[in-house]
Amino acid sequence: MRVPVRRHYLMCPPRYFTVEYTINPWMDPSQPVSAEKAMAEWNTLAETYRGFGHTVDAIEPEPGLPDMVFAANSGTVVGGRVLGSRFRAPQRAAEADHFRRWFVDHGFRDVVMPTHINEAEGDFAWTGTLLLAGTGFRTDPGAHAEAQEVLGVPVVSLQLVDPRYYHLDTALFVLAEGSQGDRDQDLRPQIAYYPEAFSPGSQQVLRRLFPDAVLATEADAACLGLNGVSDGRNVVLPQEATGLAERLAARGYEPVLVDISELRKAGGGPKCCTLEIRNPADNPHSTL
């Protein structure tokens, strides 16, 4: 029996959603997009989280920042410490300070803005015991050491090699966080990932760290199926990721498929829209 853990998320409604430029392989400004449909998908995603008993906060979107909906790229929060973001694309640069102000206004005092290019949870995945950190297309390798210093957690660097999977969160996500305690109480984290998105050396590291990982197929990855969100039991996935959903169900998880077809036109899925706030005050180990 998988046990869901209460979560706290920060999201940004796509009120000004559009695709006016190309900064990833999914974006095509020549294709029509609908802010109304994107908003409906976002509302369904937020209500899905609330239906599981999770807390969802919303930050106000800003005109001229259509990608602000992808909140995961704007902060990494572990133990109440916040490491902000520094975007590689100039079109998104202004988002970082809007999120910084939200954290400060909501009582977070340990907020650090990075000096290296760092696209936050786009390239950082907290497993409960260590921080997996992606590089290769967006986040600078130097940001990995900076994250370790700011957040005070061990960091494992992973090299992305396929431009379709330019962020770690398009190729890997955490299914269940682990914990460290007495030997009899240690819990190994579980992840799902697409091996071919990573360099050979990084694939070896992942096999060594996560021998029981759920391996995704090319079809899973091609619909952004690895851009999922899990609370330890309920796993929110794009509705096309049916193969991955079957494999997760066989492991005891409860897949929940949602429509993100409009948001995907800008290169985002459930995780991209979801910044997790890991604050001790939220009692992150509280089960539902």
From TrEMBL:
One of its GO terms (biological process) is arginine metabolic process. The active site is at residues 167, 272. GO terms for molecular function: amino acid binding; dimethylargininase activity. Keywords: Hydrolase. The keyword Signal does not apply. SUPFAM superfamilies: Pentein. InterPro entries: DDAH-like. It comes from Labedaea rhizosphaerae. This is N-dimethylarginine dimethylaminohydrolase. NCBIfam families: DiMArgaseDdahMtb. Belongs to the DDAH family.
